[in-house]
Amino acid sequence: MKLNYRFLKNPQYIALLKEGALNTLIITFFCLIFGFLLGLIFALMRQSKVKIFRIIGAFWVDFLRNTPFLVQIFFFYYGLPVLGIQTSPVITSIIALSINISAVNCEAIRAGLMAVKKDYFDCAYALGFDKIQTIRYVVLPISLRVAFKPLVNNFINLILTTSTCFSITVVDLMGASKIINGRVDRPFEIYMMLLVMYFCLLTLISIISKAIDKRIAIKL
Amino acid sequence: MAMIEVKNVTKQFGDLTVLDNFSVDFDHSGVTVLIGPSGTGKSTLLRCINGLEKIDEGDILVDGLSVNNKKNLKQIRKTCGMVFQQTVIFPHMNVLDNLTMSPIKLLRMSKAEAEDKARYYLDKVGLASKEKSRHNELSGGEQQRIAIARALMMSPEALLLDEITSALDPEMTREVLNILVNLAKEGVCMLCVTHEMSFAKEVASRILFMEGGKLVCDVSKDDFFGSVREENERINKFLSFIGE
Amino acid sequence: MQDVHTIGKYADFAVGDIRTFAEACGVTLSVTLLSLLIGTVIGIIFGLIRCSKNKLIRFLPLIIMEPLRNSPLVVQLFLVYYGLPVMAGILLKDYTAAIITLSLNTAAFFGVLVHNSILAIPVSQWEAGYALGHGKFSTFINVIARQALRLLIPQAITLYIGQLQCSSIVSLISLRDITRVGQLLSVRTMRPFAVWGIVFGLYYLVSFPLARLADYLAKRIDYTY
What we know:
The complex is a heterotrimer. By secondary structure, chain A is an all-alpha fold. Helix content of chain A is 79%, strand content 0%. Chain A has helices at residues 11-46, 51-65, 69-82, 89-114, 118-126, 131-162, 173-184, 187-216. In chain A, helix 1 (11-46) packs antiparallel against helix 2 and helix 1 (11-46) crosses helix 4. Chain A is globular and about 70 Å long. Chain A starts with 10 loop residues before the first helix and ends with a helix. Chain B is built from 9 helices and 10 strands. Chain C is mainly α. Chain C has helices at 4-9, 16-50, 55-69, 73-88, 94-120, 123-131, 136-166, 178-189, 192-220. The longest helix of chain C has 35 residues, at 16-50. The A-C interface holds A 1, 62-63, 65-71, 74-75, 78-79, 82, 156, 160-161, 163-164, 166-167, 174, 178, 181, 186-192, 194-196, 198-199, 202-203, 206 and C 66-67, 70-76, 78-79, 82-84, 86-87, 89, 161, 164-169, 171-172, 179, 182-183, 186-187, 190, 192-193, 196, 199-200, 203-204, 207-208, 211.
């Protein structure tokens, strides 16, 4: 059988793919921000001196990492309306995926924070830096460098995972492809195209991030 | 007025009393060496002077400023530079940036001026060629010498040195002590916790012997290794034990 | 107003649902275990080829591994389930398509773990083996592989847990695994919190002990060279 990509000439499908790409981008963008912030909050909770915070943080991470994302997103999709909360599928996806990604981000950030031992604080304080300055000039630059690689990995995973959001009717790249396939019935061509698109994008991100990591990496 | 006045300081870690109603004064000049068995509060005393540990009772005044007031800590730490046993050269910047960071951020010194000053001190500790190096390219001894230079960058009135050679092998210890001897000869005021008696004999002007959070004796170097040693059984035992 | 028919349709839990869940657990576990088994075997082969001295041979597995690692699993599954039959003319059952996709996906990630574990053993260990008179193969089996295995196991368990979560994807080709049954029941009973609570619990029950085991093993082997 020959590959047939004629359907790409139909502007209607191109528009659909564009819409899908936009939604994938939107979900990725917001999840990147919220996922990082949530991850930071829970990382700080897990490092906190208050026991109850540590327990909540540990449970949060454990739970999210030991249950499938698909179940999590269905939980919100079917659960939120029962609570009387009506949102769009895109927003539901952003909520579910931000929460999901926060667990792995939490672990990455925590590893970064733990890399900054007490000696670093002593040295910075003795040089005259106060707590805020120490965090700004010493703790953050070091921990973010240590956390960079795992955070990029999580980012790549995030992009991969956005493709499951079509299961709650989001028209992302995958959702758009599914709709197009429903009309032209060229599954191999469409999904192969999608696979190559994701592959190229993620390979590009990997290459760029490795170049950045090489520049900023520190050996502790 | 003495530069550092330690007044009736008590410091406890849990049930352990590390400093017990401790009082002593330090002047602007000379090298004072604190010796004594491990765990007798020598390091804690230095850390308290620099405001790294909160004191439970009493007060420490540095140039008249109390360490109990958090607002004074910045000035106190500028007055007293400190180097630790486990010093870290910040891993995310090179040696030169390690030295210039605090004067640029805290004293608003210009970059060019800070770098000139940094090169001057790097030269002084014999590491002028290492200004672009990273922490993992330096030996332990080199790291301590850079830490000394980094502390000097803030132009402190005194250097607090907390067992800075304890983690080093003999050769590196020697190279660090040589730097300290040179600094002492140039008149830099130092307060050192050390087990290096040869160093104490060479440059110390005053020796404090501490045990159990209390001051056992506070004498000149010559008296310490002379009459005090002969008279005080405990000190003689300690010095023999560490091989003097 | 709800008529009798609708009420019947949105029925509450029934005894039969327990069986449905049990069967779903069977599907999830069999899909996961089978694909992990196949994936591990292929992954080891990939990993060993990646350790070859020949640059070209070393590169070959990447042609399969990299696209698998850098594209969404759903896309891979749809490509196999919907695309392959059209392209190659073979009809695949949903179960087979799920196993093929998950196995290959596992293999790609497992290959990387195997490769990294072997690379993590320092050259001095190889030299020590040679010095004792072992050949290349014997050194690998007796010296390198054993140490690499200790590094590999905790990471493999973590990967397995991840793949168990990933197996939920098969519900999207209507295979009746736990997730799919949860979806059907949550619509039927209109009690999403109870249903998804059970589904969460089932996955968690399997994953959590494994995760703890991986942590424990990882801490125990924490030796540095």
